Amino acid sequence: MLWLNCPQCGSRPVEEFAFGGELPTVPDRITDPHERDIDYVWMFDNLEGVSTERWFHQAGCRRWHTVARDTIDDTLIT
Amino acid sequence: MLALDTLHGIRVVASPSALDAASWPDNTTVLRLAPDDVFVIGATIEHAAVIATADADAIIVAESGFVGCWLHNDALAEVATHIEWHIPTHRPAFAQGYVAGVPAKLWLTDDRALLLCASPYAHDLSERLKGSA
């Protein structure tokens, strides 16, 4: 089972969290503010490797946290 | 079955620094739900006046949306069998997470512990912990 480290509550099983998706990075080549917003919201990298993600600790502090997870073996990096 | 009673107090959402600097009466129980969120059992809105001064955007409201009960060591040990995560060993300590699959919180003191949850979960929690208290 995957365990996530909540900065407020400590290590907790993944069932306590809701997945909020990737924390995307918008490419520098997109300069128009509106296009950057669209890219941020809708375009995902779906990385094979270390992915930076948002997780919501719904059973604990009810706050969003940023997590780096290796999608190949489903292990936590930070 | 657990006898979960409504807990009355105040809920304060404010900047972490304002909450860090706040002082509360001795007869209150201060639960820091998040860096910017505190539930103070037994406090009134007047007690949070200092926070309102320190943070003009603070939200201070009366809170009666939690239920809880005090557990002594034997009952706590039984409840702990329904918890997957590591319960803090130091006292006092505050912990929150699933208890028997229900989002709940624990305030641990030297000789007893307060188990609490949001009132909509009260029935589920007490049903799943039948025989624990």
Show unreliable segments of chain B: none
Helix content of chain B: 10-25%
Largest sheet of chain A: 4 strands, antiparallel
Category from helices, strands and their pairing of chain A? mainly beta
Count, helices of chain B = 4
Residues in β-strands, percent of chain B: 35-45%
Q: Identify low-pLDDT runs of chain A.
A: none
Q: Find the CATH topology of the largest domain in chain B.
A: Alpha-Beta Plaits
Number of helices of chain A: 1
Distance between the termini of chain A: 16 Å
Characterise the protein shown here.
The complex is a heterodimer of chains A (78) and B (133). In chain A, strand 5 (64-70) and strand 6 form a beta hairpin. In chain A, the strands form two sheets. A four-stranded antiparallel beta sheet of chain A has the order 3-4-5-6, with no helix packed on it. In chain A, strands 1-2 form a two-stranded antiparallel sheet. Chain A contains one helix and six strands; from the N terminus they run βββαβββ. Chain A has one helix spanning 33-42; strands at residues 3-6, 10-13, 17-22, 50-57, 64-70, 75-76. By secondary structure, chain B is of the alpha+beta class. Chain B has two domains: 5-66, Alpha-Beta Plaits, CATH 3.30.70; 70-118, no CATH class. Helix content of chain B is 20%, strand content 41%. Chain B has four helices and seven strands. Chain B has helices spanning 16-21, 49-54, 73-80, 122-128; strands at residues 5-13, 29-34, 37-41, 59-72, 93-99, 102-108, 112-118. In chain B, strands 2-3-1-4-7-6-5 form a seven-stranded antiparallel beta sheet. In chain B, strand 5 and strand 6 form a beta hairpin. The longest helix of chain B is centred in the middle third of the chain and has 8 residues, at 73-80.
